[in-house]
């Protein structure tokens, strides 16, 4: 789907075709009350790439994600965005309808005869087979986020957009969710754009890491391979310095695992 | 038990006042007299047809009012045109006491059943509309956003998001409405009724039977409370998803 914005708050026009398989942006700007929240000249994300967006609060990472998701019709801005038509968003809150069963939540918006089977398979994938009839309130925070992940996967997205999806989970659950997400992304091969404020999360998930500051991409980095302890430390130091965290603080956190 | 103290204390004081002659039977019958009268009216089968007549009026009016209130709230809550045309009208209607509509209702519909049912419907319309509309307006924006990203179409949005989201508000309105339909009845059954609890009470006034009047009041209160209890039970069931079972 292609979205063109000619002038301030102009109507977005979306073409009906399936859209490209990669993500392309040109001259993208977004403003809140005259403050420039986002300003990107050009960005291309290849089909199947796993990109992490990292930055401080207000750096524009969520603004960029919402632009990719098409959730910013009320925000003033210009530019062109081309994204795959089959998009799915994973929010920080699991955003399950509290009055609907797990199964109904996963099939939300799905059409056709195969919807139920696809949802059941997705729930199986996230390890929640057998919980189809439960209400969200009966699930733990991690389980709720797994249902949200199943809801995203069941629509077989070409582009999975995730806005700090594990930010509200405890550290152990978060690690397990990383493992799950890595496995599912390997199986389904969507392009992923994941927003996080956690350098370690970005390093453990992303094939490519974009650091945003003040609405601009200030670093476009691919973690070094092959992965070694030293390469991880170097990557970490690079990202932290881009984020403006000084060496002393970095050194303190450099305790080997 | 704590809640029952006030009513029980009142009953004791009332019975005492009657027994020592402070309250004459012409003013107000003693509770015990009312109890025996009520029992006799029930056993002889005199009360039942009147109760049924009243219940029919109340619940017919309730059904019509709930249906109209619900439809109006959905139109106002889900469409721009509905919001513009319906909402302010209902807000004005809300400021007019429903019983003040009776003179006009009599001129339009006469003094028969249709007038009574209409006035009851008009009175329950307001709490149903107000609460359902507020429920719809109060649906979390995050769910609207979710619907956008999951490609949910309008019909599914209404069925999966709007209606369940408005249900708590609707049920609150329904609780107010079920007691309100009986309240309206008290006044309406003073007008050209040949059966119904209000008719029985009116006739009792002509004969100075204060015990029968008390029985009528008790029946109204009991029906109001019973209806409220039923809706409360429905509310508990329908909103059971809120209960956290695990975690």
Oligomeric nature of the chains? heterodimer
Note the run of SSEs of chain B as H and E: HHHHHHHHHH
Percent in helix of chain B: over 70%
Strand tally of chain A is: 11
- Amount of helix of chain A: 25-40%
Please mark out the parts of chain A with pLDDT under 50 across 5 or more consecutive residues, or reply none.
4-17
Class computed from helices, strands and strand pairing of chain A: alpha/beta
Spatial extent as radius of gyration of chain A: 19 Å
Description of the structure:
The complex is a heterodimer of chains A (257) and B (247). With 257 residues, chain A is of the alpha/beta class. Chain A contains eight helices and eleven strands. About 5% of the residues of chain A have low confidence. Chain B has 247 residues and is mainly α. Chain B has a single domain, classed as MetI-like fold. In chain B, helix 2 crosses helix 10, helix 3 runs antiparallel to helix 8 and helix 3 crosses helix 9. Chain B starts with a helix and ends in a 9-residue tail after the last helix. Classes of the chains: A alpha/beta (257), B mainly alpha (247). Chains A and B meet through strand 7 of A and helix 7 and helix 8 of B.
